[in-house]
Specification:
carbonyl reductase (NADPH), carbonyl reductase (NADPH) activity, 8 strands, Rossmann fold, 275 residues, binds NADP nicotinamide-adenine-dinucleotide phosphate
Length: 275
């Protein structure tokens, strides 16, 4: 049987690194720590090595389409595809950041929504039968959903929203933010929140598509929240350690062979959450 392979984006630190650590301990296959910066990535691989864990490394900057396609081609060539993909890479402006809201909207949506979508566009076709795809979203995306206009909420919750419509809505948020018109458009004042509302909705859309187009392949795709975790992003007051934050993403990455759910859900503390 061919070697199985797991890939985690943005895993040189924080929750991503903790996910790689847990997979190195629990996954029967090769585990790839990926990072946009080769130096930071290799340092992280060495830190795991000093814990007695063996992670492999590949460069992967999700904001760079060439980096995504190069990595996808590498996994296709070396393993024939990917068995576990965890889209963990993400950014958040600090509350104290002085960047204007329109800049925060464009930059945050670029990585957390559009670039993560690029990852899914190029990696879903190479996810092997029995594969698991986990998108690290956030409870902030659920809270933000509830702060959107009733019309937007209806679209994000609908079963018939298409990927194209969702991409159009995310772009509309960025465009309206540039004109200072996002509030009139029914959007709340949170770029990070909207990016994660988009990512959770995208996960649900893609899961429905997989169920239709790859019915017999047993692939499970979910979005999740790691909880509030002590990392460079969330600061040192958060209650969970990175290893604790990794528990739900790793649970979804390791759903046993033959499992049929959860699929297309938003999961927190290993429980499906209302959307
Ligand atoms: N911490 C929390 O409380 C919390 C709560 C809910 C959800 N989340 C989500 O959990 C995920 C991980 O967050 P974290 O708290 O671990 O944050 P973090 O410590 O800031 O780590 C973020 C990781 O993403 C990487 N990254 C950013 N942009 C990238 C890109 N374009 N390509 C590849 N990698 C990129 C970073 O790489 P560099 O080192 O190169 O910057 C870093 O490795 C994020 O999606 C975040 O939104 C976190």
């Amino acid at each position: 049987m061919s070697t199985k392979v797991a890939v985690v984006t943005g895993s040189n630190k924080g929750i991503g690194l903790a996910i790689v650590r847990a997979l190195c301990k629990q996954y029967q296959g090769d585990v790839y720590l990926t990072a946009r910066d080769v130096g930071r990535g290799q340092e992280a691989v060495e830190s795991l090595s000093s814990e007695g864990l063996k992670a492999m490394f590949h460069q992967l900057d999700i904001n760079d389409l060439n980096s995504i396609t190069t990595a996808a081609a590498y996994f296709k060539e070396k393993y024939g595809g990917v068995d576990v993909l965890v889209n963990n890479a993400g950014i958040a402006f600090k509350v104290a950041d002085t960047a204007t809201f329109d800049v925060q909207a464009e930059v945050t949506l670029k990585t957390n929504f559009f670039a993560t979508r690029d990852m899914l566009t190029h990696f879903l076709p190479i996810i092997r039968a029995g594969g698991r795809v986990v998108n690290v979203s956030s409870f902030v995306g659920s809270r933000t959903l509830n702060q959107c206009s009733p019309e937007l909420q209806q679209r994000f919750r609908s079963e018939d929203i298409t990927e194209e419509e969702l991409v159009g809505l995310m772009q509309q948020f960025v465009d309206k933010a540039k004109k200072g018109e996002h509030k009139q458009g029914g959007w709340p004042e949170t770029a990070y929140g909207v990016s994660k509302t988009g990512l959770t909705t995208l996960s649900m859309i893609l899961a429905r598509r997989i169920s239709k187009e790859r019915r017999n392949d047993g692939i499970l795709l979910n979005a999740c929240c790691p909880g509030w975790v002590r990392t460079d992003m969330a600061g040192d007051k958060a209650p969970k350690s990175p290893d604790e934050g990794a528990i739900t993403p790793v649970y979804l990455a390791l759903l046993p062979a033959g499992a049929t759910d959860p699929h297309g859900k938003f999961v927190s503390d290993k429980e499906v959450q209302p959307w």
